[in-house]
């Protein structure tokens, strides 16, 4: 994923990092919206349905607005459950486009037997693997189960030669990259373990989409391969998301695409089942989907005056970052969440960053905590800084303030302190 940002930074070396990031986010958001609309084509020719599917993906949510605790509903606590992070993070937008395209083109290739679709699916696959390699597992499970299911249900004979070529190329490409990844310094990220997602959280997180998904499971047309494929996509992703391994929750990213399509296409059946008009049903679905997006947006507004660092940087911290930005020294030590802001705001290297993007994260944060709480001797502390090329220490917590004789204060305000070696 870093290639996207480093290339942009290389092309515009003097531009502000934040400006570049959000410019990319806007560009790829427009591309994502366009691609979602086009990828709906194989599932419906109805323009209104395409627009409604796009609306559900962009603004849809679950029932998170009903709860105060962010741990209750996944749509307010797990980025992939809504599409918000796809529009905020350029690399996630690209990954979602490529992953979705690879699956949709695979479906089209098996149905139409056109080589063009096989090529598009392979290319999409090859390009999404370096961004999110863990999705290789879900891709293969979805496609293989689909092939087996259609063969069992209708005795469909798929093109053996094309399938062998497809899986040979994709397996070779993914194996090469994964082996490269495992031999790199980031291989330790495979040990990353996130907390398990409660099933109730997922159910509430998808809200009406989950209800409709369960409803349509009992009304599947076995001759409709599109519906079978979308259901397998959803089931595989949901099962992977609750398994006890590190990247489980990331399999939910982009799942609103198949869910929104099934929801939209099920409206007529639900309308007949409930004996209500389709217009009323669409209005009800809209009312149940929108509040989460409104809730999240309102939360961002209410946190402006609360000095919540997870939402906005207080002026005192921003002043400290501005000071670091003017320093000719590099290598910064800071605790969470300040450490994640430093590279973006100053271009400086930090000792550790985000948990799922930092090799040996646990060891590094333990060493940093030991330094900040003065558990090292003078010599140990100095060696720790020198060994890790740390020249600047950012202190934002009064209960975690290093007190070593070889440090000097170079900047200070009411809430933060910046130290350097004498």
Q: Helix and strand succession?
A: HHHHHHHHHHHHHHEHHHEEE
Shape: globular
Strand count: 4
Count of individual domains: 2
Helix content: 55-70%
Question: What is the mean pLDDT?
Answer: 88
For the report, how would you describe the main beta sheet? 4 strands, mixed
Radius of gyration: 24 Å
N-C termini distance? 38 Å
Portion in strands: under 5%
- Number of contiguous helices: 17
- Main-sheet strand order equals 1-2-4-3
Poorly predicted runs: none
Structural class: mainly alpha
Describe it for me?
The chain is mainly α and 422 residues long. The chain has helices spanning 2-11, 17-39, 47-59, 84-88, 90-112, 115-128, 135-154, 160-182, 199-206, 208-217, 225-241, 256-274, 278-302, 315-326, 338-346, 361-372, 378-387; strands at residues 332-333, 392-395, 407-412, 417-421. α10 packs across α12 (256-274) and α11 crosses α12 (256-274).
Give the topology.
Layout: H1 2-11, H2 17-39, H3 47-59, H4 84-88, H5 90-112, H6 115-128, H7 135-154, H8 160-182, H9 199-206, H10 208-217, H11 225-241, H12 256-274, H13 278-302, H14 315-326, E1 332-333, H15 338-346, H16 361-372, H17 378-387, E2 392-395, E3 407-412, E4 417-421
Parallel strand pairs: 1-2
Antiparallel strand pairs: 2-4, 3-4
Helix pairs in contact: 2-5, 3-12, 5-6, 5-7, 6-8, 7-11, 9-10, 10-12, 11-12, 14-15
């Amino acid at each position: 994923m870093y290639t996207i940002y480093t290339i942009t930074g290389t092309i515009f070396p003097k531009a502000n990092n934040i400006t570049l990031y959000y410019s990319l986010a806007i560009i790829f958001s427009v591309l994502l919206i366009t691609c979602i609309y086009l990828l709906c084509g194989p599932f419906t020719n109805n323009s209104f349905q395409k627009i409604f599917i796009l609306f559900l993906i962009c603004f849809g949510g679950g029932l998170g607005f009903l709860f105060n605790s962010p741990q209750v509903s996944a749509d307010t606590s797990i980025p992939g459950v809504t599409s918000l992070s796809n529009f905020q993070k350029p690399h996630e937008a690209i990954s979602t486009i490529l992953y979705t395209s690879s699956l949709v083109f695979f479906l089209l290739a098996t149905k139409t037997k056109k080589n063009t679709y096989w090529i598009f699916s392979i290319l999409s696959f090859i390009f999404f693997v370096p961004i999110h390699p863990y999705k290789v597992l879900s891709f293969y499970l979805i496609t293989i189960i689909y092939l087996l299911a259609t063969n069992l249900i209708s005795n469909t004979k798929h093109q053996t030669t094309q399938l062998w070529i497809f899986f040979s190329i994709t397996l070779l490409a993914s194996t090469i990259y994964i082996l490269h990844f495992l031999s790199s310094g980031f291989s330790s990220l495979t040990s990353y373990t996130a907390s398990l997602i409660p099933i109730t959280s997922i159910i509430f997180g998808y809200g009406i989409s989950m209800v409709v998904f369960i409803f349509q499971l009992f009304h599947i047309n076995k001759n409709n391969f599109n519906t079978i494929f979308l259901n397998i996509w959803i089931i595989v992703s949901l099962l992977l998301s609750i398994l006890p391994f590190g990247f489980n929750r990331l399999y939910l990213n982009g799942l609103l695409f198949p869910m929104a399509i099934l929801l939209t296409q099920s409206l007529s059946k639900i309308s007949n089942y409930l004996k209500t008009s389709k217009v009323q049903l669409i209005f009800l679905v809209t009312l149940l989907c929108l509040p989460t997006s409104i809730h999240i947006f309102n939360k961002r507004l209410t946190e402006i005056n609360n000095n919540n660092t997870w939402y906005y940087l207080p002026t005192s911290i921003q002043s400290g970052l501005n000071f670091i930005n003017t320093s000719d020294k590099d290598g910064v030590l800071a605790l969470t969440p300040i450490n994640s802001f430093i590279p973006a705001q100053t271009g400086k290297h930090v000792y550790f960053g985000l948990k799922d993007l930092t090799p040996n994260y646990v060891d590094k944060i333990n060493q940093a905590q030991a330094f900040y709480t003065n558990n090292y001797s003078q010599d140990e502390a100095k060696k720790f800084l020198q060994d890790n090329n740390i020249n600047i220490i950012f202190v934002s917590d009064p209960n975690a303030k290093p007190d070593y004789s070889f440090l000097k204060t170079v900047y200070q305000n009411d809430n933060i302190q910046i130290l350097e070696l004498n």
